[in-house]
């Protein structure tokens, strides 16, 4: 099946975002582990795995639509130097991916590619209701209990 060129472009844009997010989460997870923040390491490493599963879904859809997945493309990583900045940077990535997913969903629907739309809807649900929501919760916790208490709660 041949996919619409605009849909394929957006799917490759999303692929670059998801692979970049996985790279960013990988670095942040390793930093958390190095600092002894085992709970943050575990969660962010899990998020990295989720981003790779999103990338896999995008690759499969691009291939099905007759496109070529561009696995070399990346967007700039937002690597933080402290816990608060790292969480904020990760949230910024999730917001950016969510916005691009909405654009791609609208594009797929406009060309009656409902399978691509449905695939992207699953990714959007995970991006908004799991990834972004959890990061928002962590930033609220820092505001409520203070950074020092939050960091202490994240140790292994």
Automatic annotation (TrEMBL):
The molecular function GO annotations come to: ferroxidase activity
Superkingdom classification of source: Bacteria
Q: Which InterPro entries match?
A: Bacterioferritin, Ferritin-like, Ferritin-like_diiron, Ferritin-like_SF, Ferritin_DPS_dom
Q: Its catalytic activity? A: Fe(2+)(in) = Fe(2+)(out)
- Alphabetically ordered keywords of this record: Ion transport, Iron, Iron storage, Iron transport, Metal-binding, Oxidoreductase, Transport
> Does the keyword DNA repair feature in the UniProt annotation?
no
Where does the record place the Ferritin-like diiron domain? 1-146
Q: What Pfam family is a match, any one?
A: Ferritin
Keyword check for Transport: yes
> What is the similarity comment for this entry?
Belongs to the bacterioferritin family.
Query: Under what name is this protein listed?
Result: Bacterioferritin
Organism per entry:
Crenobacter oryzisoli
Where is the organism placed in the taxonomic lineage, from the top? Bacteria, Pseudomonadati, Pseudomonadota, Betaproteobacteria, Neisseriales
Q: Which gene encodes it?
A: bfr
